[in-house]
Amino acid sequence: MREAFETRNIGRIFRAYRQAQSPTVPQATLAEWLDLTQGRVSELERSRRPMNDLERLERWCNALHVPHHLRWFNGGIREVHDVQELYASRTVDPAPAYAPNQSWAPVDQAAPQQLDIVHVGIPRLRRSLDILDIPDDGPTRSLAELRTAVTLVNEHRLEARYGELVRHLPGLLGELSRARQLPTTADRRQVATLLTLALRAADGVAYKYRYFDLSARLIDLMRTTAQEADDPLLPAAVSYVRTETFFASGDLHTAARALELAADQIPTRALKQAPTAAAFGALHMRAAVVAARAGKADIAADHLLTARHAAHAAPEAIYLGTAFGPASLRIHELAVAAELRDPTGIQRAATWHPPDALPAERRSHYYIDLARAQLDLGHHEDAYLCLQTARQAAPEHTRAHPQVRQALSVLLRTHPTLSSDLLDLAAWAGAR
């Protein structure tokens, strides 16, 4: 195991891990643990090319309980003199002890050691959920005004203005909670729709800043309120977001199953209508990424094909909080190519640029994925330029994204020349 870790080759680590067990773990069993195919495990074990896909490395090391000090891609490896040390740490790093009057934020050694407005605002957001069924007394705007307010917070989410979100969401959630007492059923259903979308905006902050417990709680609340809304397409939007829970846990099998079940619930007779086509296409678009993360290229291609057909009926727009259309589909095609380490797909994507009309968060996602893919191909300067472009598109999203810090950490160790611009970018993102 020590020799395998010294090579920094995940395939050799897989093989050494299997052979170190008694009895030896078959490739098929390891593949099941990692949510991969047996063929993909075999390919990785044979490959001499190091993998730089930081998100996959992190997920696989989590699945195998690799101690954090051995994760070379996070800069934490040190020499191991005893194989037993490999099994000394079986859990993730402990959370910091609770201290009164201190806002808790997720442990992230690479993050800047300072509290920003998002972390300061999270306790208020948590409290607004605690009292969602017994809100504080206060004024409540009309339905039309609340609809405008919900549209604004979702615009903040799509444009990655997370500081604005934590400022406005607690009060808005309180108003929407009070508005649930409106007398007519039709009004209460409208409020349920608005509340679901407001909770989604809150999840945009929670998940991006790695408050995974809060994100899961928000998604559960979204599922409940979506049922009250009596909108057949709203549960599909919630299922799209729910994938985050499975991404956080690494449960790609359940993620795929949940997305397919949600797509099956959409009435196919209405697929020529843009909102229905968008809901259906978005689910398949996301299912393609899930399949690609699991190394299932054929299934990913099938989902992309289905999403492409849906995009013919749905022009690029925001549908119940989700951007869908031809441009959004191209961004997900890049994500699939990056997950599958498909050089052809990556190079094809690199010749296209997302239009400025797309939400800033989605545009920055494209450049972050492209940076990761370029880094995997050994194109260091292109990766750096992509990260700079992502920062220009959505600075708050880029700075909070763990893949950005991980990619910059790799660039700091491997880039042939460390320019002042690269060092400034790494310092800004908290990479080291």
UniProtKB/TrEMBL annotation:
Coiled-coil region(s): none
Signal peptide: none
Matches recorded under InterPro entries: Cro/C1-type_HTH, Lambda_DNA-bd_dom_sf, TPR-like_helical_dom_sf
Protein name: Transcriptional regulator with XRE-family HTH domain
Organism of provenance: Saccharothrix longispora
